[in-house]
Amino acid sequence: MTKTVGVVGGGQLARMMIAPAVELGVELRVLVEGEAMAASLAATAVGDYRDAETVLAFARDVDVITFDHEHVPQPVLRALVDAGVAVHPGPDALQFAQDKLVMRSRLAELGAPQPDWAAVADEADLRSFLDDHGGRAVVKTPRGGYDGKGVRVVSDPADVAEWFAASDGPLLAEELVPFTRELAQQVARRPSGQVVAYPVAETVQRDGVCAEVIAPAPRASERLMEVAARLGVTIAEGLGVTGMLAVELFETADERILVNELAMRPHNSGHWTQDGAVTSQFEQHLRAVLDLPLGATDPLADWAVMVNILGGPAAGGLTDRFAAAMAEHPTAKIHTYGKDPRPGRKVGHVNAVGDDLEDAVYEARAAAGFFS
Amino acid sequence: MTKTVGVVGGGQLARMMIAPAVELGVELRVLVEGEAMAASLAATAVGDYRDAETVLAFARDVDVITFDHEHVPQPVLRALVDAGVAVHPGPDALQFAQDKLVMRSRLAELGAPQPDWAAVADEADLRSFLDDHGGRAVVKTPRGGYDGKGVRVVSDPADVAEWFAASDGPLLAEELVPFTRELAQQVARRPSGQVVAYPVAETVQRDGVCAEVIAPAPRASERLMEVAARLGVTIAEGLGVTGMLAVELFETADERILVNELAMRPHNSGHWTQDGAVTSQFEQHLRAVLDLPLGATDPLADWAVMVNILGGPAAGGLTDRFAAAMAEHPTAKIHTYGKDPRPGRKVGHVNAVGDDLEDAVYEARAAAGFFS
């Protein structure tokens, strides 16, 4: 009996579940938002993920519903659960990924290290937070932000006056952490409890968007690796996450780590696992949401490097560049999302693995360079 | 502009092209023989590959036609070429995979080492061959044999009397080679000429069917690796093969290698490349037939071991066994073909890679053991 996984959302994360689904013999169904989505080739339904009837109809006859993104509204998620559908991650977990204030509160309860933060209801609240934190802070809309959107560094409450005006609740103010670098910890957890952690990776952001990832994080001490993995496991268990969890972290000069963001799905910071680990995050997510035993998270080489392809080439299509990139970089693994290039849009990525970090960085960057 | 590859034949080899096609952004279309084939999930047409009109209609608007098997008749292949369709491998190459007598003649012209052989027209011819070769020989029907079918060890011409009666041409008689083991050399070649070789692998056959593969072949000297790779390249070039070529070899006690069989497509003996090499044979085949630069053939670890899943479990479905196999063997990579289990039928395989050969053999065998 073939198991069937229904994925709500047809972006590249759903698309990258196709390959492991085929090999595992898992039937993948995808509810896409429109015809021209990255995962359209596996699409079995087109419709609005905010509409409970659409999602309920899609969920009929699947073994589990999972997601390409965290934007499915709580009432829709609850309707699925009420209808007896297995939903992973479930609504109780997803609320922490959907609302950054709810997440901050829960992480505080768990004792997870995080930046100083406060719910600020108005400009006066924010002024007071700024006064307590050297006059600068990061302000976030609790809901709906991603890839740098809904995040602003402010020194004057007036900088986010329109956010206060538009919001029906408080904003999130966070201490501006003087971090030395950013890290990402990938963890997978099954509904029945098994949990595994990948080696923590270093992520490099440009303009608020992930640009490069190196796994494991260079110069990471054993202690740091352990602390990050344990923190990931604590959060996955404490928040009841099922499937993949990405914990984005700040590392400080004194080697402390602080939780920046969470994502409850395969995440850009884990794409290196496709070619650099025994079990990719996409296979792992399918195994986890089906409550199958999790795969090994061991790296396949000393280093794995991922470089995003952003925006696409100035002239010509993506595929026009394949021949040149492949000719120069036969060890680079090029992954494309089937999306039309637009400035700043993630349209693919390149992985390179090997036992020499400089080589792997060079190969991944140089191959990606042909596409943007 | 997305490139489109049309695959004639819907078995597991076509199915295993799906994963790399998705990541490369290649559109895969598959002409399947019936509804319930391994690659049915990518099927875009159902029909008879022996019918020129069916195949010509399927070939419309694809960039290249390739194959899951070598059984498409020459007139159909020629009709494709005449219609201006790019066909890889082409009819001139495929004739050598379709007729073992034609192959033996051509390999002799190329000076490739092979067992003594003869075209035997009748029982008297075969008697004479037997007399010259110690009274025993392997007799093969030149066309249509696979996985041990159409192959018989004989000591009396009467053993194949019905083959002579049914055949409209001579049979192939081959010396019974006193081989110490069997090897397989994978090579890929582009239409424009680039050719790459994988490390030669050891294959273990049971009842004429591939059971296990170890790559690289244990205890293989550098000289053997080089000779095998060079032989593979010579054959690919000499026969004009495009796409993947598998050369099945006998190794003798004095470290000679002799060509046993050829396959012009991804082959069971190369499945280890999915998890054990930078570029899998399925990705490589797509790159080769599209005339894209070939990927690196480097192994990802010291050893890769592949064990076939034959026949399926005595009770229950394949997927019932996943949980047990995955729980015990988190490093094993299980690949399933979506086929109903039947005795002796290949329904999947397991790859294990690592730097310890005994561990990898154990993991692959033990994980596969849950399924058969």
From TrEMBL, chains A, B:
Reactions accelerated catalytically: 5-amino-1-(5-phospho-beta-D-ribosyl)imidazole + hydrogencarbonate + ATP = 5-carboxyamino-1-(5-phospho-D-ribosyl)imidazole + ADP + phosphate + 2 H(+)
GO BP terms: 'de novo' IMP biosynthetic process
Protein name: N5-carboxyaminoimidazole ribonucleotide synthase
PROSITE patterns: ATP_GRASP (PS50975)
Known function: Catalyzes the ATP-dependent conversion of 5-aminoimidazole ribonucleotide (AIR) and HCO(3)(-) to N5-carboxyaminoimidazole ribonucleotide (N5-CAIR).
Residue ranges occupied by any ATP-grasp domain in the UniProt entry: 104-290
Similarity section: Belongs to the PurK/PurT family.
Annotated positions binding ATP: K100, K140, E174, E175, L176, V177, E182, N260, E261
Pathway(s) annotated for this protein in UniProt: Purine metabolism; IMP biosynthesis via de novo pathway; 5-amino-1-(5-phospho-D-ribosyl)imidazole-4-carboxylate from 5-amino-1-(5-phospho-D-ribosyl)imidazole (N5-CAIR route): step 1/2
Xref: Gene3D superfamilies: 3.40.50.20, ATP-grasp fold, A domain, ATP-grasp fold, B domain
Complexes and interactors: Homodimer.
UniProt KW keywords: ATP-binding, Ligase, Nucleotide-binding, Purine biosynthesis
Keyword Ligase carried by entry: yes
InterPro entries: ATP-grasp, ATP-grasp_carboxylate-amine, ATP_grasp_subdomain_1, PreATP-grasp_dom_sf, PurK, PurK_C, PurT/PurK_preATP-grasp, Rudment_hybrid_motif
EC category: ligase
UniProt EC number: 6.3.4.18
GO molecular function, a single term: metal ion binding
GO CC, alphabetical: cytosol
